[in-house]
Amino acid sequence: MEWLDSTPPIFVLSGGAGALGKHVARVALAQFCMNIPPIIVIPQVRTLEQLTAAVERVTAASGVIVHTMVDPELRAALNTLARAHDLTLIDTIGDPLAQLAGHFGRPPAGQPGLFQRQQEVYLERIQAIEYTVDHDDGRNLQDLNQADVVLTGVSRVGKTPLSIYLSVLGWKVANVPLARELPAPPELFRVDRRRVVGLTIDIDVLAQHRHWRQLGSTMLHGYTAPDLLEEEVLAARHVFRQGGFAVVNVTNKPIEETADQVIALISRWFEHRVAS
Q1: Digit-coded pLDDT (tens) for 98-142
Q2: DSSP E strands: which ranges in 82-221?
Q3: Among 184, 115, 119, which residue's Cα sits nearest to residue 153?
Q4: How far apart are CA 198 and CA 150, in angstroms?
């Protein structure tokens, strides 16, 4: 069986983009025929005037309404208008909302677009993680200006785990290592200094971290020698002063506490929405 050219269209009414309603209409129509009738999406229906105009358009075309209206007042008004115009009305969201409201013991928010915003937050978080992985350990320094946060400090101060932790919260983080025998990369000083946080650590704790890192490896003695470690940490602090960077001491702090400090420092200057 195929649809005739005179088959009335399906109108999808939504307070948001209408993607869900269109998808539901396509899935359902596929069970009846190969060639589906036209599906016309009327998105962003947020007022009674917009709703009335949409229903008049459907009536003129003798169409069918599939809707995903989450606003309870507009959903009730749509039911009334559909009955008045003798229109077929398919509610794809009302029954699930009612069932879930009973299950959770509280009414739904009734705000269109919440799912889309949740998806946007999820995608932003994925992008933050991807950026952070691509800019770990001084890689892709030419893109530092795209970072929300730039962490810098000596080896084994905890830059990478802190970067990943922040990225999961939605921050794009780059980290730049500092080495005693090498000058700091010039790209570090071209970034807005308010986005750069220097990480420092007590010498004895850094020595422990490097000792465990050195086990089973062929790293040079200078990697753990106390006198050279002190020189390295002091050189890093000189870089922090040179760039005017904020400094966080990570000694014996859990990563959550350090992350909170970094977020507080950056948030002084910039608005950043952290994913919850």
Answers
A1: 655 565 576 656 565 555 555 566 677 888 899 999 999 999 999
A2: 89-91, 149-154, 173-178, 196-200
A3: 184
A4: 8
DSSP string, 152-175: EEETTSSHHHHHHHHHHTT--EEE
For residues 237 and 233, give the distance between their C-alpha atoms in angstroms, rounded to a whole number: 6
CA distances from 110 to 80, 115, 119, 204 (A): 19, 12, 18, 56
Enumerate residues 6+ apart whose C-beta is below 8 A from 51. 13, 45, 74, 77, 78, 81
Residues 132 and 127: their CA atoms lie apart, in Å, by 9
Average pLDDT over residues 36-65: 91
pTM of the model: 0.57
Residue pointed to by tokens 């904020």: 246
Whole-angstrom distance, CA of residue 109 vs CA of residue 116 = 14
Q: Where are the beta strands (DSSP E) in the chain?
A: 10-13, 39-42, 64-67, 89-91, 149-154, 173-178, 196-200, 246-249
Q: What is the pLDDT of residues 157-175, one digit of tens each?
A: 999 999 999 998 889 999 9
Q: Which residues pair with 11 in a beta bridge?
A: 40, 65
20: phi then psi, degrees, rounded to nearest 5 = -65, -50
Token pair 């919260």 is at which residue?
Answer: 169
Residue 59 phi, psi dihedral angles, 5° rounding:
-60, -45
Q: Which of 18-27, 81-90, 145-154, 189-198 has the lowest mean pLDDT?
A: 18-27
Tell me how far apart the alpha carbons of residues 131 and 254 are, in angstroms, rounded to a whole number: 24
What is the β-pairing status of strands 149-154 and 196-200? parallel
Least Cα distance to 253 among 215, 205, 213 occurs for: 205
